Structure prediction request, 684 residues.
Amino acid sequence: MTFGHEHRPLSQRMTRLALWVITILVLTYLIAPLLAIIPLSFSSSAFLNYPIPSFSLHWYEDFFSSPEWRLAIWNSLVVGSITALLATSLGTLAALGLNRADFPFKRVITGFFISPLVVPVIILAVGTYFFFAPLRLTGTYTGIILAHTTMAIPFVVITVGATLTGLDENLVRAAFSLGAHPVRVFFKVILPLVLPGVISGAVIAFATSLDEVVMILFLAGPEQNTIPRQMFNGIKYYLSPTITAVATVLVVVSIAILGLVGLLRRRMEKLRASAAEH
Amino acid sequence: MTEVHILSRQLYSSNRHRRLASFALVLPLLVFLIFSYGFPIGTMLWQSVSDKEVGAALPQTVVALASWDGKTLPDEMAFRALAADIKKARADETLAPAARRLNYDVSGFREVLFRTARRLPPADTASAKDYLTKLDPAWSDLAYWGAIRNAAGPASLYYLLSAIDLRSDPAGSIVAKPNDSAIFIDIFFRTFEMSLIVTLICVVLGFPVAYLLASLPARLAYPLLVLVLVPFWTSLLVRTAAWVVLLQNRGIVNHALIDLHILNEPTALIYNRLGVYVAMTHILLPYFILPLYSVMKGISPNYMRAAASLGARPIRAFVKVYLPQCASGITAGCLLVFTVAIGFYITPALVGGAADQMISYYIAFYTNTAANWGLACALSVWLLGATFILYVVYAKLAGGVAGPKT
Prediction:
């Protein structure tokens, strides 16, 4: 028995049509604001409106060459990279440990690792500010990197953890039974197998730092200005078209990240499927 | 027998070894997070109950008031202790922080203390009580003495109570704050109200989308899902900036509405509640659509077909068969959106007006601008408590974790 479209009664077809209309409107609401600002970033006019008088790369030039934005780009890249490195190393090791064996308080510890995700950022920021201030960590790169790493860790633990559930334990056992040193087993057997998950974790950790502004507002000094903070100030005080150029670049970056993570996920699923076969 | 014994012993020791090795892998992150996350949260919790300025500045007064009943004026000893304490505190420069703390509780206390400090009773005065009550009528007011007694420290519930518009009276019982200084319950209420409205909009807009996408074949659903995923992954500031560009007075939407002769002059679409709802819903909608989509994807169409073949009308089949199966997905999505929404700070700060700020804004305000750290931390404790309860319910329902990013 099949339920082809042609056999559907009118009322059902009307419902279907209504669903399509609502869905298209909602998806337009989600995507249109992002699409609307992209052409404005190529406008020669300082007014953020249509029609665009003529095209220009002026605002991109401002983004990539003005000293404030250059500092912000540099800071974002440095803080994001070190955060990704730190969060991925600590998070991968911990995910391996959590996956290997049961030990006391494992559930509590896992919950603790994930919990920074749930706590409102403002609370993390206020707590970190009060704790870091007497240690002279406010207004330093170290302080910001520590704070961003804390926020990125749950993503790494979750992503790498998800890959590890697909890991074939027998390969690890085989390596150990052949007398391989644990460090060698990690780099030669485990890491190549979970690499897609680890890279996903690192990319998400980088993206978390790249998007983060609340911690920066509380912890950073003027030398640690990042792209999000510069944008925050721009939106709050003077919305110049440079912001739309930055926004366009960031939209492209997030699409790239989305594509990369999607690609890695597909690889992981393939690995998991092949592990299940054996 | 012995061989089995040895084997089980070996197994035990190998398990033990395994457990230790696992824990050793977890340890670096544990240590890191205790420092960079546990201590900050701990500091925040401690700051919300720490109350030591008055005890440090007026130690003898605090001791003298310990056995005071709070119903009649304290005795001569307390007045003498106060005079001595003020004199010493002024020299030690501990008077100003204590005055600030007491002024939070009884406004005008700061002036009373400094006025008194300038005209302290002479050492040979017959009655410090007579002298001080004559010098300043405040010292015959139980409220002032009650404030000192309740601030004895080193820890108190003052800030935590203050953050929900309560205070201790001179007799030590908890009462509502006077109306003109009771503001936080309204702000918490506003935070919950705004989050609830955003959640409801997400349900109304998100449900049909998730439903349609789940019923489409993959080749159609995936490209449409990308339209949900791209904004989900895009920076919060980019999306907020986009809404400012679109909605501001000389923005794209106002222009378009005027060109279409729907409006004659620009109308305020931003820096008000409307703007906050539009931008917040935009950010939170994917949090509702994506998990609900995967729940709906897991519902077999056979149930609906069975209901239809048994003669159920489509609406009846939908309500009786389909909805119950995705009810937990809807509830979990609502809880997730609501939980993330109550912690929002950046978006309302950038697209809202003064009357549209949520609790996070006030936490930031009392930390950075008003520098009333105890109150900032107490507000954080209540927000954290609400988030925690919501999250526990969510985790029970969803059985997993999904990632908020505010």
User: Anything to note?
Assistant: The mean pLDDT of chain A is 89. Chain A touches chain B through 91 residues (CB under 8 Å). Chain A has one domain: 70-277. The CA atoms of residues 235 and 243 of chain A lie 8 Å apart.
